[in-house]
Amino acid sequence: MNEALNIFTRGFVKENPVTKMLLGLCPVLAVTTTAINGLGMGLATTFVLLGSNVVIALASKAIPSTVRIPSFILVIATFVTIVDLLIQAFSPELNQSLGIFIPLIVVNCMILGRAEAFASRNGLWYSIIDAIGMGLGFTFALLLLSIFREVLGAGTIFNIPLVGEDASTILVFALPPGAFAGLGLIIAGLNSLEKKMGDKK
Amino acid sequence: MISEAFIPAVASLGSVALTLGLIIFYVSKKFHVEEDPMVTILNDTLPGVNCGACGYPSCGQFAEVLVETKDSSMTCPVGGTDLAEKLGDTLGITMAEPKPITAVVLCQGDNDTARETAEYLGIQDCWAATQTYVGPKQCRYSCVGLGSCIAFCDFGAMRLENGLIIIDKDRCTGCEACIPACPTGVIVMQEKKAERYVIACNSHDKGAATKKACDAGCIACQKCVKVCDDDAIVIENFLAKIIQEKCTSCGKCIEVCPTKVNCILLEEDLKEAKQKKAS
Amino acid sequence: MYAKVLKTYRDKAEIEIICTDASKESEHCGACTMGQKPSSKPRAVLAHNRVKAKTGDMVEFEEKEHAEIKAALVLLIGPLVLFMLSLGIAGSMQFELWQSFFFSLLVLAVTYTILRYFLKDTTYYHITGIK
Amino acid sequence: MESVNLKVSNAPFVRSKDSIESVMYNVALALAPATVMSVYLFGMRALVLTVVCILSCIAFEWLMDKARNKPNSCLDGSALVTGLLLALNVPANLPLWMVVTGSFIAIVATKHVFGGLGYNVFNPALVARVFLLISFPAAMTSWPMPAPFSFDMMVDMETGASPLGILKTDGVQAALASLSLMDGFYGTMTGSLGETSALALLAGAVWLWYKKYITMYIPLTIMGSVFLFTGLFHLIDPGTYASPAFHMVTGGLILGAFFMATDMVTSPLSIRGQLLFGLGCGLLTAVIRLWGGYPEGISFAILIMNSFVPLIDRWDLNDRKAENKKKPEKP
Amino acid sequence: MRPITILTIVGILSASLLAVVEDLTREPIAIAKEQMKRKAIEQIFPFPFDSLRTVTTEQTTFYEAYNQDNAIEGIAVETSTEEGYSGLIEILLGVSPDQKILGYKVLFHRETPGLGDKIDKPKFKEQFKGRTLENTNWKVKKDGGDIDELTAATISSKAVANAVVKGLEFIKEQYPKSSAE
Amino acid sequence: MKTFKTGGIHPPESKFTENTPVELMPVPKELAISLNQHLGKPAKPVVKAGSEVKKGELIGEADGFISANVHASTSGKVKSVKPHPHPGGHYAMTVFITPDGQDEWAEGLNTDPVDWHGFSKEDIIGKIKNAGIVGMGGAGFPTNVKLAPPPDKKIDTIILNGAECEPFLTADHRLMLESPEEIVEGLNIITSLFGGEARAYIGIESNKKDAIETLTSHASSKGIEVVSLKTKYPQGAEKQLINAITGRTIEPGELPFDKGCLVQNIATAVAVYEAVCKNKPLVDRVVTVSGLEIGKPKNIRALVGTSFRDISLFCGNLKESTNQIISGGPMMGKAVYTLDVPIIKTTSGMLFINNVGIEKARERTCIRCGKCVDVCPQGLAPWLLANVAQLREFDEIQLLGLANCTECGSCTYVCPSKRELVHWIKYAKALVNNRQKRKSA
Amino acid sequence: MNELSGLLLVIVSAIFVNNVVFARFLGICPYLGVSRKLDTALGMGFAVTFVMTIATAIGYVLHYGILVPFKIEFMQTIMFILVIASLVQLVEIVLKKVSKSLYNSLGIFLPLITTNCAILGVALIAIQEDYSFVTSVVFAFFSAMGFILAILLFAGIREKLEEADVPKPFKNVPIGFISAAILSLAFMGFSGLVK
Ligand SMILES: Cc1cc2nc3c(=O)[nH]c(=O)nc-3n(C[C@H](O)[C@H](O)[C@H](O)COP(=O)(O)O)c2cc1C
Ligand SMILES: Cc1cc2nc3c(=O)[nH]c(=O)nc-3n(C[C@H](O)[C@H](O)[C@H](O)COP(=O)(O)O)c2cc1C
Ligand SMILES: Cc1cc2nc3c(=O)[nH]c(=O)nc-3n(C[C@H](O)[C@H](O)[C@H](O)COP(=O)(O)O)c2cc1C
Ligand SMILES: Cc1cc2nc3c(=O)[nH]c(=O)nc-3n(C[C@H](O)[C@H](O)[C@H](O)CO)c2cc1C
Ligand code: SF4
Ligand code: SF4
Ligand code: SF4
Ligand code: SF4
Ligand code: FES
């Protein structure tokens, strides 16, 4: 159980796919204009990760190494398309704002990476935990960045206004430069935080 | 329930996948690269710092040669005994125990013991200082004390204290990266030993000159040579040297050394040794 | 920059580049400009062998400047430009989409077939000494 | 042993009197006419804004030195110049909190994060200006009308678009009607603090040039290329494109070309590099002015060219190396 | 040969799965799209309506909203202009059967955030309610008209006004009678 | 007025002693004669503690092709031969002589001048070699070697270097005023070695008007051209001087003789004259003692081996506030760390200064102002060299022309960030050398 | 003429205004990962150019040749990614055959491309924007040029930053993002250039 906990938690900070492993950065930067988008993207990715991890954990024995990567990509793409269709059906607004980045989950290197590095070598149970842990870690990073950007850039949080309509918010944070700067700051912050914690130990 | 998209979807994707499979199958047959899995395994076991202490330019190279020759005398000083065991297990041979070596600074001329020359204000680097003049310490064989070597140590085993380099023997892996970094050559490599006596001085000046320059300098007075029953001390070029293979750690030399700050050192952490001496 | 000789030809040799870097400051291998991590896969390249190194020798080698860029230009950008040109030509000849597409694929294939003869033993590396 | 306490350092033992301080304070001095002019045109508010901007820059510099454990550099003049230039780059009625935010961006996010003086890749004052422009477009594009000798604080004064803004939105005729070239030259037009008076700026620039703190390669290529490029299109279609003279005196072109593109930290060192840099700045400025969404392009142009500086440096470096390789040393 | 078979099988399985899911979601997606439209129209109409009829003409698309009695309660028309500060602005304009504006919603724009994008803010939109082609001088105040322009975004304001006029004129063409009433 | 093409600076001249005639310094109580007074291998000692020597007697014998003889600079007894601080900063084998006060020349030395015209080339070069003459302009290259270039190199231009471009220094200036005949004769001897066609020049900076006049009046009749040079540092550096006078450029890796040129210092010319005509070995030289911290700045003629301490006492002692003593000029000299160091054949000056505000780490970061590039006479990019040296990328730095730097110090002089540019360059050179040594070992 | 000026707009837009990296956020992983050295960046850029252009062309043909006629547009993602993956593999085989030595010189670039989302992204955008075949190809090629521009500028800055005294927590990645932020700030100057 301890092992499971460990697998589950490491995706948050220690091996966070975004801030530590720098994987799947494009959606992170692109869709984090509002917290809702961030959350949506994170959960969609988690779903794909979970699905593909499960399938791959179950089927990896049957897949010969030569066609491993193409098969994995097929599996991942299937789940991505499913998510895409589901979002289109049940949350058209989200679909509109996430746009092209839903299909791009396919190339989120994190997913292929987890499939290769974890799911194909570990059992179903651990793969599920890993998927959820990593997915939530991804979502966590997205949420952090998107809240940062939404609060500073639009003056709202989850679309709830924090300041009056006429107040000047720092618009750059809603624009591309703000995405880069925000992520840079978050990583730098986590770096020094981690160092401080390490020093304390 | 078969939807209208079902057949084209399955057919097109299936055929693309089939083509792809064919290509990959063909390729993997055609371009298969034979690689000894053992090398990869060993490579993963090795420390991977590519420090060169083993005599090969990289850990991977070491692994390759080891797999090829199964030469049990090859050692990785960084990994130490543990690693040797592991490597041996993997290869099914008994590896030679690497004799762990450590860097030793042959100088005790810190800011208290060594007398200074003019203050040095140039680039704070041992090479730059010695290239400008004899250096901040009168003794030109000394540890210059600007710490150029520290950056070369991958393992954080060196630190500067009171104008002298101190080597953390626990961290030092004997990779020898610091040796070429030092302009005065006061760092040498010696086998790691629990108890070891060294003449911690590098000065080849005559006794009088040495004494003038430093309280901890070896003045080549021959006392230790005479008292040593094992002929383990020789004097070369006005400097005593303990031959480690012969030294039995009897400690007699340390009793007779007349220098103000004993230039013979019971080799542990220098600081501890000093404290011991003080008490 | 060090390498191991895998195979020798008349005036060339196939060498495997060894990644070295003992300095902790840099994360990448000092043996090539690729910024590879020292642990990544070895690369074997063809090199001029003036010093007559033999198989198994450890050699020092030099890389002609911008080897990767030159290789990429010859191998990728040249053919790609031809591909696009042929698309343009096909387009101006009022080909159909399918036709012009396959026409340019054909051009690409032909380009590579021709290149194969020219590039067989082009190399941007020189062995400079035996270690 | 010695009666004197000798110190050993390396030759040369004499050094010129130039220092970072002298360079920076001279730049500040060169900007003084433009600053005085801005106070004359926009009154007390301009003065308050300038002082706040400079002080906040120096304060951030001090804070960063403290935070990074570096020797104190807040009085070396570079923060002063950055602050002054930032102040000259914003409208006189910009809310003070925005000014301080700009200082933060300049000193902390553009200078110290990259390592401090000498290491920054981008021009701090310009990054701050563009940051403000994009974050607070309304505040950054409504300029107070110049009101010479009005020493009030312009709480709610009349604002207007700058000549370039009018050019962009209302076309050439309106823009030309809004000012005479002489207005532009003396500076009695709307604009940021230091953008208005070509005369005051040029006086300062000539001083800097005379003192050899700047060379004229960059400014002249910028001015020249903007002149030629806008001139070309003016000839083609004078109805759509304003005359090159109009482009010369309006907006931040002179301030940018002579004081900001010349920042040596963020511009190339070699002469050909400087020419290339200037040409790039000029063309980009003209393109943005003629067809872009923003009325003024010089800030963006300089920032974009800043990012090319490492490549230009690299070009010089490679050439140096190639040259030295060609003539191998004889043993 | 196994790899090929496996890959093909994976491909076929994926495709089948997808086809099934697609089949299942086709309807919901269509409904969702409809729903989106309806929601948008609901936002501009201040009243609930019962059914919607979509009319596509050569120039544009418009929607008629009916109440339970099958009487037209409102018309929503897609209209656009290229004259925004950054080009295209698309709006969905809602008018009552007597061709008074009920409201509008911006469907697409690229105006500067913080300036031109205020055309989608209630404060600006509010003033259009109740205006008709006739009762308003469709110029901005600056040019002597009735429309309050946004500070520092006159161009966007003008563009919106123009788009609205275009929409109103289109409706007038479509429903000449009702306007005559 | 001629000058070199690229770069150069003009530091304050501070030539306090230009009107002070050369004063002869008496024999001190002890002499420490270094056996390493030249470029190349140190001389081999040929005396032992206790030997009696006469003035001018050989005490160190040239050891190898590039090396030079060393002679006793006074008569007395050898006290010891041991390592001793050297003005170069390090220890060198040094012969200590306790003078007997007689200052008595050995047999056959320092005779009355004879006419040299009958001497053969070999004779002349042999005499120069025996007299232990080395370049007195700073580098100390054995003159006999320089005067016998490989036969395939044709020398057509001989230049006497009277630029004395370093601030403070006036030794050459005084020499030009006080010994013009010897200089001209020396130059004639050198020129004669290269046959009739070689043109002879004397290059003098324009701030020494009197010297230009004096030498013009002595030299013009002998077919020697005195060239007035713009006062600009480093006008006296060999490559720059050649460029100024002939317009030729010594390319990286070339030596002056590759371009048909030969440059000698003024004092070297005098020494050559004395060696050839008077059989006088090089045992003394003119030294400028200057700086704000010395009691009486002077030009003195001192024996080789006189310690800095003795000289400072002779010149009115140094002040308490002295914190740097420099051997040589302020641009190229070296700070000495003890007053025990002796002067050697190449010591042209000795400065006592209070370098205010020198402290550790006054270096700041490069602000890329480009001044160093503008002033570098060798057309280098000093800032880049220093940066690369700081990064310790020694392969890279060699490609940037490290070897071409003459270490003139102009770049460091102008740098507003007070970077130790030359020092970084010297540092890189030292490490590059060390690496090459280790590689070949 | 009109067509040409249309293409010109597409080109300017692809390189400057809607730069893949700075405005569209595509290909960020290689932008950060392979920009440590200039040469590497350029080599990677070329490889991306090749694959991006050809993948977009094939994608176009696939989309309008198979997906649209059979009404299986929902298979777009899976088809495209399969095509890209196999294209990369195919290119690898071909290049290896053509010149093994040169292929090895750029060995590590190609496999990395499969997971570069810019490739798939650009192929999808070309479809989304309803570009014609030629426009799609031109768009893809110049998007790649935009990528090269971005990655080159960034590599230059990063090489310079190796000498710089960047505060510890900002070393490497964070300062890379800050530079990218300022770069994209500067590139916003191009906004409005193409309406
Ligand atoms: C960065 C920038 C962005 C702008 N964006 C817009 C915009 O989105 N909409 C607009 O109408 N004008 C925009 N403008 C134009 C100016 O604000 C212009 O002065 C204004 O539209 C006309 O002035 P007025 O509204 O104050 O009368 C922009 C100007 C700048 C400098
Ligand atoms: C290793 C070495 C060899 C030299 N060989 C010769 C030579 O053969 N002939 C010559 O005229 N000068 C030779 N030079 C002398 C230099 O050209 C130069 O004159 C000398 O170093 C003094 O230069 P300076 O006082 O300008 O620094 C040599 C110098 C060095 C360092
Ligand atoms: C920067 C620099 C400045 C020099 N200045 C002088 C000078 O002022 N006078 C001089 O005689 N030699 C000067 N030298 C030495 C000359 O380059 C050259 O070595 C010398 O004139 C050769 O003559 P020598 O062999 O007789 O010493 C300088 C060298 C350098 C590198
Ligand atoms: C000629 C000159 C121009 C300068 N221009 C600027 C400028 O445009 N923006 C700025 O922040 N600093 C400027 N500085 C100051 C300084 O170089 C700047 O703070 C550094 O970029 C910070 O590292 C300038 C300095 C000089 C000497
Ligand atoms: S051991 Fe050597 S390198 Fe290290 S500080 Fe001492 S002198 Fe310097
Ligand atoms: S005498 Fe020995 S201990 Fe003292 S400083 Fe010299 S080397 Fe060090
Ligand atoms: S010291 Fe070297 S680099 Fe500096 S100016 Fe002189 S020659 Fe140039
Ligand atoms: S003079 Fe100094 S600050 Fe200026 S470029 Fe050279 S090294 Fe840098
Ligand atoms: S997510 Fe876009 S390249 Fe990795």
TrEMBL record, chain A:
TM spans (from-to): 39-59, 71-90, 96-113, 125-148, 168-193
One Pfam entry name: Rnf-Nqr
Membrane topology label: Multi-pass membrane protein
Swiss-Prot/TrEMBL GO biological process terms: electron transport chain
EC assignment: 7.-.-.-
Enzyme class at the top of the EC tree: translocase
Key words, A-Z: Cell membrane, Electron transport, Membrane, Translocase, Transmembrane, Transmembrane helix, Transport
Any single GO CC term annotated in Swiss-Prot or TrEMBL for this entry: endomembrane system
Subcellular localization(s) per the UniProt record: Cell membrane; Endomembrane system
Subunit text: The complex is composed of six subunits: RnfA, RnfB, RnfC, RnfD, RnfE and RnfG.
PANTHER family per record: ELECTRON TRANSPORT COMPLEX PROTEIN RNFE, ION-TRANSLOCATING OXIDOREDUCTASE COMPLEX SUBUNIT E
Role description: Part of a membrane-bound complex that couples electron transfer with translocation of ions across the membrane.
Annotated family: Belongs to the NqrDE/RnfAE family.
Protein's name in the database: Ion-translocating oxidoreductase complex subunit E
TrEMBL record, chain B:
Residues of the 4Fe-4S domain: 34-93
Binding site for [4Fe-4S] cluster 3: 153, 172, 175, 178
Binding annotation for [4Fe-4S] cluster 1: 51, 54, 59, 76
Record keywords, A-Z: 4Fe-4S, Cell membrane, Electron transport, Iron, Iron-sulfur, Membrane, Metal-binding, Repeat, Translocase, Transmembrane, Transmembrane helix, Transport
TM regions (residue ranges): 6-28
Recorded superkingdom: Bacteria
Matches recorded under InterPro entries: 4Fe-4S_dom, 4Fe4S_Fe-S-bd, 4Fe4S_Fe_S_CS, 4Fe4S_Ferredoxin_RnfB, Elect_transpt_cplx_RnfB/RsxB
Subcellular location: Cell membrane
EC number: 7.-.-.-
CDD domains: MtMvhB_like
Cofactor: binding details: Binds 3 [4Fe-4S] clusters.
CC per GO annotation: plasma membrane
Chief location of this protein within or outside the cell: membrane
Cofactor or coenzyme needed: [4Fe-4S] cluster
Residues where [4Fe-4S] cluster 2 binds: 139, 143, 149, 182
Single Gene Ontology BP annotation: electron transport chain
GO molecular function: 4 iron, 4 sulfur cluster binding; electron transfer activity; metal ion binding
Region annotated Hydrophobic, chain positions: 1-28
Domain 4Fe-4S ferredoxin-type: 163-192, 207-237, 238-269
Function per UniProt: Part of a membrane-bound complex that couples electron transfer with translocation of ions across the membrane.
Family, similarity comment: Belongs to the 4Fe4S bacterial-type ferredoxin family. RnfB subfamily.
Binding partners and assembly: The complex is composed of six subunits: RnfA, RnfB, RnfC, RnfD, RnfE and RnfG.
The protein's name: Ion-translocating oxidoreductase complex subunit B
Source organism of the structure: Chlorobium phaeobacteroides (strain BS1)
Gene that this polypeptide is encoded by: rnfB
UniProtKB/TrEMBL annotation, chain D:
GO biological process, one term: transmembrane transport
Localization in the cell: Cell membrane
EC number: 7.-.-.-
Ranges that cross the membrane: 23-41, 47-64, 96-114, 126-145, 185-210, 217-236, 242-261, 273-292
Cofactor entry: FMN
EC top class, as a word: translocase
InterPro entries on file: NqrB/RnfD (IPR004338), RnfD_bac (IPR011303)
Main location: membrane
Cited Pfam families: NQR2_RnfD_RnfE (PF03116)
Key words of the record: Cell membrane, Electron transport, Flavoprotein, FMN, Membrane, Phosphoprotein, Translocase, Transmembrane, Transmembrane helix, Transport
Topology within the bilayer: Multi-pass membrane protein
GO cellular component, one term: plasma membrane
Subunit details: The complex is composed of six subunits: RnfA, RnfB, RnfC, RnfD, RnfE and RnfG.
Entry's family note: Belongs to the NqrB/RnfD family.
HAMAP family named among the record's database cross-references: RsxD_RnfD
Function: Part of a membrane-bound complex that couples electron transfer with translocation of ions across the membrane.
UniProt protein name: Ion-translocating oxidoreductase complex subunit D
Taxonomic source organism: Chlorobium phaeobacteroides (strain BS1)
Gene: rnfD
Automatic annotation (TrEMBL), chain G:
Pfam families in the record: Rnf-Nqr (PF02508)
Main location: membrane
EC number: 7.-.-.-
Membrane topology: Multi-pass membrane protein
Keyword flag Transport: yes
Broad EC category: translocase
Protein's cellular compartments: Cell membrane; Endomembrane system
Any one GO BP annotation for this protein: electron transport chain
Chain segments annotated as transmembrane: 6-29, 41-62, 74-95, 107-127, 133-155, 175-194
Superkingdom of this protein's organism: Bacteria
A single GO cellular-component term on record: plasma membrane
HAMAP family named among the record's database cross-references: RsxA_RnfA
PANTHER family to which the protein is assigned, alphabetical: INTEGRAL MEMBRANE PROTEIN OF SOXR-REDUCING COMPLEX, ION-TRANSLOCATING OXIDOREDUCTASE COMPLEX SUBUNIT A
Role: Part of a membrane-bound complex that couples electron transfer with translocation of ions across the membrane.
UniProt-listed NCBIfam families: PRK05151.1 (NF003481), rnfA (TIGR01943)
Subunit structure comment from the entry: The complex is composed of six subunits: RnfA, RnfB, RnfC, RnfD, RnfE and RnfG.
Family: Belongs to the NqrDE/RnfAE family.
Protein name: Ion-translocating oxidoreductase complex subunit A
UniProt organism field: Chlorobium phaeobacteroides (strain BS1)
Originating gene: rnfA
